[in-house]
């Protein structure tokens, strides 16, 4: 029976091909499952609260293209975009050829608001989708089993981390990269003002001292060449941390019918984000079990990304030790660090 449970996929993984290079992930369910420690509970779905989410997009977003487009002078960035686009087209072909199910699971929706921000009744299209009633004043956050959190900035909590934190098999970072469009959005997460500021913050994280000898670091990055260069150049942060790149995953955002939410060939914005995966320099690990994985999801709220715990069980045994830096929710059995670590653990985000 234990073997059956181990072999079964979590409900959040709606599809995964045989070589595990393509995975369709339900973002809210991956975060819901991350609240649980027991693999039996995760697979069965029992005792799982539901996360309040946004309505999944049915149509691609329209974005204006620049009138006077200047060709990208960065050859490496142009090649990276072409490589990502080719991987995405292949992943979508795999899904369309072999998967006939839904592209996301039913969601628990927040109450709709009118243009003045006042709550109104759910629209007919939302009825029956598990529309959540917002709670009043926030009470105690919901803390998953065996999770540890450092609620505060990197500089404020660094001393405690150095004193108390163990070594981790996986360290996930979702840095607040400079992003003007995110800063313009209401209720958006805070971002760094510039790359110098975020580099200074990232340099404070003691990666080398707290990464297990054969551990991995997974870093969410935007598609800006300067962000990737900050990490991967000869004097970049990976070098500073004693790391070297071992793989790169792509997260593609799609509509409920499986169309990319933006034109793949758009010069302005891309429908994907990337995850750079690095190992210790000199590690015995040469590659991951599934190279250049493509994760496909219908997006949720702006700052939410799929929880990666289950996806790295291909690499580490279940129950491995993880840390998420710049976390916005907690994960059972993991450490979480950041000034928004409890953001989505507040009771009003759950039903």
From TrEMBL:
Query: Which molecular-function annotations from GO does this UniProt entry contain?
Result: methyltransferase activity; nucleic acid binding
Gene Ontology BP term (one): methylation
Q: Which residue ranges are recorded for the region named Disordered?
A: 49-68, 115-138
**Which family does the record claim for this protein?**
Belongs to the MT-A70-like family.
Q: Which Gene3D superfamilies did the record assign?
A: Vaccinia Virus protein VP39 (3.40.50.150)
- Which Pfam families does the record match to this protein? MT-A70
> In terms of domain of life, where is this protein from?
Eukaryota
Its GO CC terms are: nucleus
Its name, as the record gives it, is: MT-A70 family
Against SUPFAM superfamilies, the record matches this protein to:
S-adenosyl-L-methionine-dependent methyltransferases
Bias-annotated ranges (Basic and acidic residues): 56-65
């Amino acid at each position: 029976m234990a073997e059956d449970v181990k072999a079964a996929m979590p409900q959040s993984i709606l599809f995964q091909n045989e070589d595990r290079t393509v995975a369709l992930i339900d973002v809210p369910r991956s975060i819901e499952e991350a609240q649980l420690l027991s693999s039996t509970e995760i697979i069965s779905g029992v005792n799982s609260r539901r996360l309040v989410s946004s309505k999944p997009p049915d149509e691609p977003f329209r974005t204006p293209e620049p009138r006077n487009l200047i060709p990208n002078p960065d050859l490496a960035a142009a090649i990276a975009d072409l490589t990502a686009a080719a991987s995405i087209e292949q992943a979508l072909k795999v899904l369309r050829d072999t998967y006939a199910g839904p592209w996301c699971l039913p969601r628990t929706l927040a109450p709709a608001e009118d243009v003045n921000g006042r709550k109104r009744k759910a629209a007919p299209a939302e009825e029956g989708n598990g529309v959540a009633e917002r709670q009043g004043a926030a009470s105690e956050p919901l803390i998953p089993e065996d999770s540890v959190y450092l609620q505060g900035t990197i500089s404020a909590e660094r001393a405690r981390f150095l004193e108390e934190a163990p070594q981790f098999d996986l360290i996930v970072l979702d840095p607040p990269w400079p992003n003007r469009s995110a800063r313009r959005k209401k209720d958006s997460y805070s971002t760094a003002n510039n790359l110098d500021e975020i580099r200074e913050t990232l340099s404070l994280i003691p990666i080398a001292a707290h990464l297990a000898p054969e551990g991995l670091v997974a870093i969410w990055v935007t598609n800006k060449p300067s962000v990737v260069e900050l990490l991967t150049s000869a004097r970049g942060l990976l070098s500073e941390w004693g790391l070297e790149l071992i793989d790169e995953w792509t997260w593609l955002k799609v509509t409920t019918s499986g169309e990319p939410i933006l034109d793949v060939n758009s010069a302005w914005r891309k429908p994907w984000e990337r995850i750079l995966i690095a190992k210790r320099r000199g590690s015995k690990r040469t590659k991951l079990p599934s190279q250049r994985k493509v994760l496909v999801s219908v997006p949720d709220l702006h700052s939410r990304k799929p929880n990666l715990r289950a996806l790295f069980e291909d690499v580490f045994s279940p129950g491995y030790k993880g840390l998420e830096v710049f976390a916005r929710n907690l994960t059972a059995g993991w450490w979480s660090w950041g000034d928004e670590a409890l953001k989505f653990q507040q009771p009003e985000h759950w039903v």
